[in-house]
Amino acid sequence: MASASRPIPQVMKLTDAAADRVREIMAKSDKPVVGLRIGVKNGGCAGMEYTMEWAEDQKPFDEVVEDKGVKVLIDAKAMMFLLGTEMDYQTTTLKSGFVFNNPNQVSACGCGESVQLKAAAT
Q1: Which residues pair with residue 74 across a beta bridge?
Q2: Cα atoms in the Cβ-side hemisphere of radius 13 Å centred on 80
Q3: How many other CB atoms are there within 10 angstroms of residue 51's CB atom?
């Protein structure tokens, strides 16, 4: 008996504000980019930090997310930490920047620069 296939959930989503900001920044790039690469790395006082960089090419194991006209490449090592995440762009009186609303986040440091993440349950 063959098992029924089910759709693979999208790793992450972008808010309208995040998609607009990514498009705005990409339009000003002085070199061609295929999208925004997002990952995580060890570091910071809470244990992990989000990483973002312009991707000039797609790597073989990148997970490609296309949302609201923006292409985001998820680093393969970050997949299980980012599953279910919503990326937003917020502007306040004191700062503006991308914010990750991540259901896998256990805690964050006081400065907001690093987080503690757990792998998503599969």
Answers
A1: 38, 63
A2: 6
A3: 13
Taking the C-alpha atoms of residue 59 and residue 103, their distance in angstroms, rounded to an integer, is 26
Q: Is 119 left (phi over 0), alpha (psi -120 to 50) or beta?
A: beta
Q: Are strands 70-74 and 35-42 parallel, antiparallel or unpaired?
A: parallel
State the Cα torsion 16-19-69-5 to the nearest 10°: -80
Structural domains for the chain: 12-117 (2.60.300.12)
By the 10 Å C-beta count (0-12 exposed, 13-18 middle, 19+ buried), 13 is classed as: middle
d(CA 17, CA 39): 20
Provide the 8-state DSSP code for 77: G
User: Can you give the pLDDT of all 122 residues of the chain as single tens digits?
Assistant: 555 665 566 789 999 999 999 999 888 888 889 999 999 888 777 678 889 999 999 999 999 999 999 999 999 888 888 888 999 999 988 888 898 888 877 766 655 566 555 666 65
CB 113 within 8 A of CB 100: no
